[in-house]
Amino acid sequence: MPKVLLAEDDAIMVSLLKTLLKMEGYTVVAVDADADVPAAVRAESPDVLLLDVHLSRQDGLAILDQLRAAPDTQSVNVVMSSGMNLREECLKRGASDFLLKPYMPDDLVTMLKKVINPA
């Protein structure tokens, strides 16, 4: 069962994503928006990290940079999401993919499958 690590500061979004992804057969672990996300990635070893670009007190792009800079986390799949279209910036900095909010649940599930099991 693939594991998704959620780093999202909207509690309602976290609740919805947990429900949706569990129904789709994923194990879901949510980290607090102020948590040490790279440490959570190391602890959980997720198949994919779903990372909000704008966390309450943290910058998702800075977290992405930290993950890509460390040998033990540089290859983790990271799907970034934001209400602003930052696709190019996220991909340029090493994100596996990008989702513009608000997105349809089907789009998320399709993207996760593609990122976790590339053809």
What would you note in describing this structure?
The protein is an alpha/beta fold. The chain has a single domain, classed as Response regulator (Rossmann fold). It has a five-stranded parallel sheet, with helices on both faces.
What descriptive keywords fit this protein?
single chain, 119 residues, alpha/beta, Rossmann fold, five-stranded parallel sheet, 5 strands, 41% helix, globular
**Largest beta-sheet characterization:** 5 strands, parallel
Number of strands: 5
Outline, from the CA principal axes?
A: globular
**Derived structural class:** alpha/beta
Strand content: 15-25%
Strand order, biggest sheet? 2-1-3-4-5
The parts where pLDDT drops under 50 for at least 5 residues are none
The residue-averaged pLDDT reads 95
In whole angstroms, how far apart are the ends? Answer: 18 Å
What is the number of helical segments per DSSP (H or I, 4+ residues)?
Answer: 5
What is the name of the CATH topology? Rossmann fold
CATH class: Alpha Beta
Please bin the fraction of helical residues: 40-55%
Give the SSE layout:
Elements: E1 3-7, H1 11-23, E2 27-31, H2 37-44, E3 48-52, H3 60-69, E4 77-82, H4 87-92, E5 97-100, H5 105-116
Parallel strand pairs: 1-2, 1-3, 3-4, 4-5
